[in-house]
Amino acid sequence: MIFYFSGTGNSRWVAESLGKRLEDAVEDIADVKIEKEEYTLPEGEILGFVFPVYAWAPPTIVMDFISLLRLSSAPKYVFFVCTCGDDSGKTADIFCKAVKEKGWECNAGFSVIIPNTYVSLPGFDVDPLHMVSKKLREAKERIEYISSKLAARARLIDCYEGAFPWIKSYLIHPLFMHTLMSPKPFKAADSCISCGLCEKACPVRNIHLKERGKPEWGSHCTMCLACYHSCPKHAIEYSCLTQKKGQYLFDKSNKEL
């Protein structure tokens, strides 16, 4: 069983690719009624988690899911794959600690470098097309490598932490969570055509169209930016920080390559 969370499609692609190669079921964390379900893992089946790195740590929705996940028996092999535009910091340590608190052992972990999607700070933007092509091409090779290791039930942590990983994950990440996770700066410009694609794209159903057809954001945003990247008119803005920046969706970009 492989659980995943994805905003713009990168982690979904990785999870589905691994599921196909390993012949394992794949489920979207955002669709699971976690409080009501108990999962039974068949003998020998692995338990995997695929998710993006948010400010050098796993997304809160993933951590909450793990804490609430109920299994009929302890898994024999647990792994994770995190996707990131560059480095993952101490994501592996944070994930392994959460799994250990469940009484399980994280046996393997990997990072996969994918196209950048974070655009909500100065200096952050999507990658140029040639870099998107390069990253996706190399990610396909990386997925093949990871699937071979998982099939062999390898025990290793193979993540690119980058420079100053402890500072990024344990100092910068909490600051990010405290100051940059609010959905309040989101707004729709006058170019919004009320198509509803942002509402459909939101994995946690945090967006609803108001009476006049403009999107309104609720309070449980994950800052995945699926709404921003899905808007066909580029009408969604996060304060003034996203103006004149690019958009990226895996499905669209993969077709264009």
TrEMBL record:
GO terms for molecular function: iron-sulfur cluster binding; metal ion binding. Keywords: Iron, Iron-sulfur, Metal-binding. Residues 183-212, 213-241 form the 4Fe-4S ferredoxin-type domain. The keyword Oxidoreductase does not apply. It holds the Pfam family Flavodoxin_5. The lineage of its organism: Bacteria, Pseudomonadati, Bacteroidota, Bacteroidia, Bacteroidales. The keyword Iron-sulfur applies. This is EFR1 family ferrodoxin.
